[in-house]
Fold this sequence. Notes:
- It contains 15 helices and 19 strands.
- It is an alpha+beta fold.
- The protein has three domains: 132 residues, 3-Layer(aba) Sandwich (D-Maltodextrin-Binding Protein, domain 2); 105 residues, Alpha-Beta Complex (Dipeptide-binding Protein, domain 1); 214 residues, Dipeptide-binding Protein, Domain 3 (Dipeptide-binding Protein, domain 3, Roll).
- It is globular.
- The two termini are 33 Å apart.
Amino acid sequence: MKHRPAVLIASLIAALAGAGCSAGLPSGGARDADPDRLRLAMLQPPRSGLSPLSDDAFKLSRWSTAETLVGLDADGGAVPALATSWEQVDPRTWRLQLRDGVRFHDGTRLRATHAAASLTAAAQASPPPRILDGVTLRARALDGDTLEVTTADPDPLVPQRLSSPQLVVLSPAAYDGPAVDPVGTGTGPFELTEVDGTSGATLERFDGYWGERAALAGIDVAYVPDGTARAAALRTGEADVVEAVPVGQAARLDQDLVHEVPMPRTNTLYLNTERGPFADPAVRAAAREAVDRARIVASVYEGRADVAQGLLGPAVAWAAPLRDTPSYAAALAGRARPAARVDGVEISLGTFTDRAELPEVAVLLEQELEAVGFEVEQDVREYQYIEADALDGAFDAFVLSRATVLDSGDPVAYLYSDFACRGSFNLSQLCDPAVDRALERAAALPVGEQRQRATLAAEAAVLATDAVVPMLHERVVQGESARVSGVLRDPRERQLVATATDVR
Length: 504
């Protein structure tokens, strides 16, 4: 991957942060903005060098530089993207017809062999992309424009899986080196031309795009983990679009520039079930009872969030009615009773600074847990420096803001990833046969009401273990300057800049 300085707003935002994030418009700010380019301040830097096989794929998707075979509509249904149609040949086999006239940014024409190679690279990755947790997938070209995808077990969700940004299709050049390189190898309306490590990236309009020509000449991206600096960049006109404005900063901004997006994202406390104090279900139950969800919503989120009743929030509209059933209540009734005494029980609590609210949540959790007798030691870092430890089970408890339908538009993939014995993002180190059976039942059902009911049964099975305490469902705040139009407000955090996005 090539690395050279990109034309970014990073230095301007750094200056704002160093100057105490002054609200005044600095010289060289909005008055000198390129009228044809969008300046974007993003929450987190890349974690894996912009590899599409990691969560960095969602950056590539939000920049409209890399594309998938299938898209999702507002209800989570599969719609055409690089594939125009698909059919299920048998329970384990799907055939897709690719769009004609698509070229990669390096000029290569899209063929079925390229799509098969991209899917094969994802399927063989270690660890695999989250969307392929528990799925054995194979892809091959039947002819120039026909792709066949097979799974080891029947999987009714294959089209939705193929919509995951972690399964984007890149040109053969992307796979030449030791890491997958998205620079100049996508198919979207914007070509990724330069990357600057964890500082930013530059994209240019791709005039050979198969669809509508982009209105913008390009995009200048800066990664700004500091929430106050992101808000200041919007307020002073240094950025056109700002991801995840902290709720504590939102009230200080012009409210015409602030847009709340209801997100399928849950702020969750994960408890380590494998070792340490929380290996005891009764101690986990004591922690669950100590958490005051309403207090966290009112104080940290200033009311801009919803108290969690389960893992799936209001953005998953069908979830709440299905909780009001005898079977759901019976599953929760089987939870362990809280330990009578936890006085002096020492626990480590981790979280990260990239989402400004999380350290504040950790402070309140520490107070609430210590009020019932726990002794809490916090560890708070940037996400890129704490993720590996969290996945390795280094903490007794970890606070995470987690998207629940991020990958496929269907919550089963998230539940499997986070709570199955073989899940790749299992922060709770949970391995419970009842949970695995519930997840397997849900995964085997076709999209529809039966699958939804089975998904809620799996949620109940997870909650019955007390491996996790869902606290609240977030409403991410997106900032957009007055000079920008056509920015997407996507609950799934897949789309942001589109061909119709423009500045004036």
